[in-house]
Amino acid sequence: AEARTGGGRIRTGKMANLPLPVQISFFIGGVICVVMWQLNMRKVRKGEKDREERVLANLEKLAPIITMEMAQLYEVDGNCCICLSELPGGTMRKVICGHVFHANCIERWILHSVERYLDVRSFVRSQHGFLVPGTPWPSCPLCMRVLSVIEEVDIRDAVSAALYYYNHNPSGLQIFA
Fold first, then answer.
1. What is the Cβ-side half-sphere exposure of residue 118, based on CA atoms within 13 angstroms?
2. CB burial of residue 83 (10 Å; 0-12, 13-18, 19+)
3. Which residues pair with 79 in a beta bridge?
4. Are 139 and 148 in contact (CB under 8 A)?
5. What is this structure's pTM?
6. Which of 133, 137, 139 is nearest to 163 (CA)?
7. What is the pLDDT of residues 134-157, one digit of tens each?
8. DSSP per-residue string spanning 90-157
9. At the N or C end, where does the chain have fewer CB atoms within 10 A?
10. Is 88 within 8 Å of 74 (Cβ atoms)?
11. Residues 88-111: pLDDT tens digits?
C-alpha cells in the first residue's frame, strides 16, 4: 500500500489511502486521547496521595510517635520485626496493641496493606453474593490486631471500582467458597 504524493514522497501503510484531512483528524484524536489519559492519571495519583494522607492521619491516632525517653519508660528493647534493626533507635511508633516499630517501617507496612486491601483485583464474591476484599484488613505485623486506618470513602471507591472492573472482566472474578 504505497502512494506517491505530488512532491514525489512515498507514503506507506493504511493511512496513505485516506485523504489528508482524515489523517489530520486521526492525529488530533490521538493527541486528545493521550492528553485525556494524562489528566486521568493525575487525578488517580492525587486520589492515591489523598488516601495516603488520610491513612497516615488515622495511623497517628492508633500508633503515636514515641520519643527515646518514652521508649526507655516502656522498656523498649529488641529489634523492629519489620526491618530487623535494633530498637530503640530513630523515630518510633507504639501501636495500640503495645508493639513498637520504627515509624517509617510501620507506615510503609500499613500503606502497603491498605493498597493490597483496596486493590480491585483482590476482591472476591462471597457465598452470599457480595463483593468483598480477598485480603485481610491492615493490622499489626506481630499480633495481627486490626488497625482501622481505612476510611469509608476509600472502601466505597474500591468497591465501586471492583464492580466496574468485574462487570467488564467477569473472568477475573474468583468465587469464595
1. 24
2. middle
3. 86
4. no
5. 0.64
6. 133
7. 788 888 998 888 888 988 888 888
8. SSEEE-TTS-EEEHHHHHHHHHHHHHHHH-GGGEEE-TTS-EEESSPPPB-TTT--B-----HHHHHH
9. C
10. no
11. 777 888 888 888 888 999 999 998
